[in-house]
Amino acid sequence: VAVSNVETRDTGTQTWTAFTADELADVLDYSHGLLVRESLGTWPSGRRNVRVTYTHGRQPIPSELRRAALGVLLDQATRTNVNDRALTETNEFGTFRLSTPGGSGHWFGLPAVDSVLSQYREAVLTV
User: Fold this and answer.
1) What is the pTM (predicted TM-score) of this model?
2) C-alpha–C-alpha distance, residues 13 and 5, integer Å
3) What is the torsion angle, in degrees rounded to the nearest 10, for the CA atoms of residue 16, residue 17, residue 23 and residue 24?
């Protein structure tokens, strides 16, 4: 995680104030998503009064994730005669259950893509 900006506001106001470069350098980030101000103050009390801009990701991007992204692009860019809402397809070879998005571990309904996403999945702290 790389924190690039922090803004705070006083409770009951709409004016946001960005941290200075020194204040931003004072913010320590821990791997599990906790941000701590080391020595230049504390976080303001209240709710919804701190905004943090950060970058998170892998560099370089693993080749499996690149292939998965290209698989999603190809799936979205190509046309098919199968209805988007279809759960099964019947043809001269029989009836087949289609993989569909939704549910645990089935983000795109593309088994090769979904298995890679399951492999690289990480928990992210949400506040």
Assistant:
1) 0.53
2) 20
3) 50
Residue 118, φ and ψ in degrees, nearest 5: -65, -35
- Burial readout 89-108 (b: 16 or more C-beta within 10 A, e: otherwise): eeeeeeeeeeeeeeeeebbb
CA distance 73 to 34: 34
Quote the pLDDT of residue 16.
96
Burial of 113 (0-12, 13-18, 19+ CB in 10 A): buried
pLDDT of 124:
62
State which amino acid sits at residue 54. Y
What are the backbone dihedrals phi and psi of residue 40, each rounded to the nearest 5 degrees, phi first?
-100, 35
* Residue 23 and residue 6 in contact, taking contact as beta carbons nearer than 8 Å: yes
Rounded to whole angstroms, what are the CA distances from 115 to 46, 59, 63, 106, 118? 41, 20, 14, 8, 5
DSSP string, 75-99: HHHS--SS-TT-SEEEETTEEEEPP
Side chain identity, residue 97: R
Amino acid making up residue 85: R
Write down the pLDDT at residue 42: 92
